Amino acid sequence: MKLRLILLFFILSAALNLFWAARDPSWLTIPALLAGWYVADMLSGLVHMFMDYHPCPRGKGLDRLYFYEGSRGSEEYQLLFQQTMAGINPFQRLVYDFKNHHPRPNALGRRNMWRQIGSTVVAGGLPVSVLFNLICWSGELPGWVAAGFFSMLMGGTFAQYFHGTLHREDNPRIILAMRRMGLLMTPEAHQLHHDTLRQDFSTNCGWSNWLMNLVFGAARAKGAFPESGLEPTA
């Protein structure tokens, strides 16, 4: 019930932001929508890059979970999973999820939408959206600014859901339509990331991957993002 209320508040808040955009139409609206979508794609890449290479905490048993060789549907694994997750905080679990995704990419596609976007809505999407509601309410902002923000908000909030659609075959028609329009990337384009783990970190539309690749290359040249961060260690 609590999660449903949070989701409802987010939908209402986002709809209010869309209202602010629609009440003041401008020729700048479409460029702003595209710019917001680009920023969301870039943010997905930055988060992905950081999470991929940020080390998991040592001494928490995450290495045993990651390298478990038996059936992950077994009672033994499920018990180990519950015990291990109970010993880490939500951020550490998110970091682990990014590591675990690489050898088991299709697991992300099997998760429901709330599992994919819930933490983003609670920690980022809802607070930021409400803050923008207050800004719009207290002052006159051009509609195109609200349009750009709305586009960025939607792209950022649903980034992990969009990522999940790249790892399953059965997707809603709107996802397929957005791919045809170039607003979402294809599984083939995303596979370039999984092939190397050193490029194409953005997972929405991929428009910003050229920039993210430059950022990653420059950071690696300065010693950032060592390979040791890609997998949990004892």
UniProtKB/TrEMBL annotation:
Signal peptide feature range: none
Transmembrane segments: 31-51, 117-135, 141-162
Domain Lipid desaturase per the UniProt entry, residue ranges: 95-213
Pfam families found in the cross-reference section: Lipid_desat
InterPro entries the record matches: Lipid_desat (IPR019547)
Keywords (A to Z) from UniProt: Membrane, Transmembrane, Transmembrane helix
Gene Ontology terms: cellular component: membrane
Primary localization class, coarse: membrane
Compartment(s): Membrane
Lipid bilayer topology: Multi-pass membrane protein
Similarity section: Belongs to the fatty acid desaturase CarF family.
Full protein name: Lipid desaturase domain-containing protein
